[in-house]
Each structure stands twice: as structure tokens, then as C-alpha cells.
Amino acid sequence: MDQPAFLDTIQQHQGILHKLCRLYRDTREDREDLFQEMIYQLWKSYSSFQGHARISTWIYRIALNTALADFRRKKPHITYTDQLPELPTGSHGGTSPQQDQLFAALKRLNDAEKAIIALYLEDMSYQEIAEITGIDENYVGVKLNRIKSKIKNMLKL
Amino acid sequence: MDPLKAAWDATPAPHRTITDLQGIIRKHTSPVLKRIRTQMIIEAIGYVAFLLVYYDFFDGDKKPFYLNALLVFSVACMLANNVIGYRMATHPGEENNLLDHMRQKLRAIRIYAAWAICTKVLGFAGVMTFLLAGIQWNGSKYATLFALALIMAMQVYANWKIWRGRIKHIRQTVEELSR
């Protein structure tokens, strides 16, 4: 297997992998574990990648399958309130208050909604979102509108 | 949604070098699989050690063959349960979209949950049948057996609750994607 090509590809697309880890896991340790799990599963599946789809489509599919299907994941007990917490102004752990609020809102979505909105925010077309998630292409727009209004309500946009 | 997209695009992510990524794939495993494998090995050592000593320690030679066979079969089932669980965790499902993958996972996890709980109950029943065969029963022994059975029942109930939660979570994702 062409390891250098694989590593180059992953290095280019690692941003979305990190964002998915942040979306689906709550602690730094769990995110690191998921990131390594994604890389491992991607490497294991690399030989079967036929090149029929875009490489990014393939990466997102494996990454999401890995993030969602881990039924053993630890779930810390989190109580969500109706309002998002007020965030301090200025940088917080390398991210801006807007980014922290965005992720706080995204984390309140269910697993399926998180996947759809993440793909949308990554500029995937409806066809690609349908291909990765298995949702009917005509239905992707409907779902996205629902999710967007849910987020707008949370963020009071 | 523009502010959302802008915030998403600008979210900083840790940067891993080629060497870091190479280090991850060189391990030939992931932290999750490593933990499952470690637990599996520890339990397997325990089961095998029990099988090696039970014949002398628990008078296997004085008990009929079918009871010995039942004990070995019960322990082997518990061992097989761990191996199947590990195999299930290693499969990435690369050829499927998310919905199909989650449907497949839901089917597999339902079967595995039933199998895991049945194995626990049957394994316990098998081991207890072997240990208690030919025993002279009295009040305190009945009380001990009752206490053991109660502990086992509580464990099975806790296990069932965990599996029910996992199944429910995956089923909700499937429903959400199919709606």
C-alpha cells in the first residue's frame, strides 16, 4: 500500500477529522483516542479505496462511521439547559467565543444532525452529503433547513 | 448561516506532522482496540488458568465427564464472547454509507447483546452446576447460593441496562437518518 500518499492525503484533510472529534467527544483524551481510531480505520480501509468517489468523501464516510458506531464510548452526564452559557470575551483555549458558542450549539444536536451539518459546513454538495450519510438527496435540504433553524434558535441569530 | 460557516472554517485544529501520523499507523492498533484487547487478554488468562487448575482444585477427577465437559464449554463460551466482541469492534464498515453502516451495527449489536447476556447466565449456571454437584446441602449453603445468584442477577440486570442504552442510542441515530 502507498503509505506516503495516504499520509499526505490525511495530513491535508486532518482539519475535518479534528473538528469531528471535537463534535463527537467531550474530553481531550477521548478526542485523541477517536482521532487515532479514525486514522487506524482509514489506513485499514485504504487498500479498498477504489477511487470511484472523491477521496474526501471516502475520508468523511469512514471518519463518521468510526465516530458514530463506537458503542463503547463513555458518555459523561451532561445536562443541557435551554440557554447556551454566556462565554467570556477573548480567546479561550485557542478558539474565539464565537467558535466556542458554535460548538456548544452543535454539541446539542443529535449524532445524525451533527454529521449532516458538519458536512454542510465543509462545503459538501447535497449529492455528496447524501452519498456519505445515505439520506435521500432530495431530503438533505429539508433536514439541513431544520438543523439550521435549530442552531439559529440556540444561538439567537 | 455565514457567521456559522466562518466560525467553523476558522476553528483552529491541532496540526499533526507526517511523522505523527506515521506513528499512529505503525502501532497497528488504536487506543480503543488496545483497551478491549488488554481486557480480553486478562480475562482469557483468568479463564485458561481456571481451566488448568479446576481439575485438581475442584475435584474434576471425582465428577462425571459430562460435568467436566459442561464446565469447559461454559468457560469456552465466555472466552468466545470476548473474541466476538473484539472482532466486532475492529470492523470499520468502509463500504457503506452512514445509514447502512448504522443499520448493520444495530443488527450486530442486538445479536451480540443477546449473546453476551446469555453467555454470562449460561456460563455462570455451568460453573455453578459443576461446583455444586455432589455437595451436602444445608441452610448456610443455600443462603450462599442464593446470595451468589442474587449478585449474578444484579450483574446481568446492569449489563442488560448498558446494552439497552447502547442499542437505543444507535437506533435513534438510524431513525433520525431515515426520517
Automatic annotation (TrEMBL), chain A:
<keyword id="KW-0805">Transcription regulation</keyword>
<dbReference type="GO" id="GO:0006352">
    <property type="term" value="P:DNA-templated transcription initiation"/>
</dbReference>
<feature type="domain" description="RNA polymerase sigma-70 region 2">
    <location>
        <begin position="10"/>
        <end position="75"/>
    </location>
</feature>
<keyword id="KW-0804">Transcription</keyword>
<dbReference type="Pfam" id="PF08281">
    <property type="entry name" value="Sigma70_r4_2"/>
</dbReference>
<dbReference type="GO" id="GO:0003677">
    <property type="term" value="F:DNA binding"/>
</dbReference>
<dbReference type="InterPro" id="IPR013324">
    <property type="entry name" value="RNA_pol_sigma_r3/r4-like"/>
</dbReference>
<dbReference type="InterPro" id="IPR013249">
    <property type="entry name" value="RNA_pol_sigma70_r4_t2"/>
</dbReference>
<dbReference type="Pfam" id="PF04542">
    <property type="entry name" value="Sigma70_r2"/>
</dbReference>
<protein>
    <submittedName>
        <fullName>RNA polymerase sigma-70 factor, ECF subfamily</fullName>
    </submittedName>
</protein>
<dbReference type="InterPro" id="IPR013325">
    <property type="entry name" value="RNA_pol_sigma_r2"/>
</dbReference>
<keyword id="KW-0731">Sigma factor</keyword>
<dbReference type="InterPro" id="IPR014284">
    <property type="entry name" value="RNA_pol_sigma-70_dom"/>
</dbReference>
<dbReference type="GO" id="GO:0016987">
    <property type="term" value="F:sigma factor activity"/>
</dbReference>
<dbReference type="InterPro" id="IPR007627">
    <property type="entry name" value="RNA_pol_sigma70_r2"/>
</dbReference>
<dbReference type="InterPro" id="IPR036388">
    <property type="entry name" value="WH-like_DNA-bd_sf"/>
</dbReference>
<dbReference type="InterPro" id="IPR039425">
    <property type="entry name" value="RNA_pol_sigma-70-like"/>
</dbReference>
<comment type="similarity">
    <text>Belongs to the sigma-70 factor family. ECF subfamily.</text>
</comment>
<feature type="domain" description="RNA polymerase sigma factor 70 region 4 type 2">
    <location>
        <begin position="101"/>
        <end position="150"/>
    </location>
</feature>
UniProtKB/TrEMBL annotation, chain B:
<keyword id="KW-1133">Transmembrane helix</keyword>
<feature type="transmembrane region" description="Helical">
    <location>
        <begin position="112"/>
        <end position="136"/>
    </location>
</feature>
<feature type="transmembrane region" description="Helical">
    <location>
        <begin position="40"/>
        <end position="58"/>
    </location>
</feature>
<protein>
    <submittedName>
        <fullName>Uncharacterized protein</fullName>
    </submittedName>
</protein>
<keyword id="KW-0472">Membrane</keyword>
<keyword id="KW-0812">Transmembrane</keyword>
<feature type="transmembrane region" description="Helical">
    <location>
        <begin position="64"/>
        <end position="84"/>
    </location>
</feature>
<feature type="transmembrane region" description="Helical">
    <location>
        <begin position="142"/>
        <end position="160"/>
    </location>
</feature>
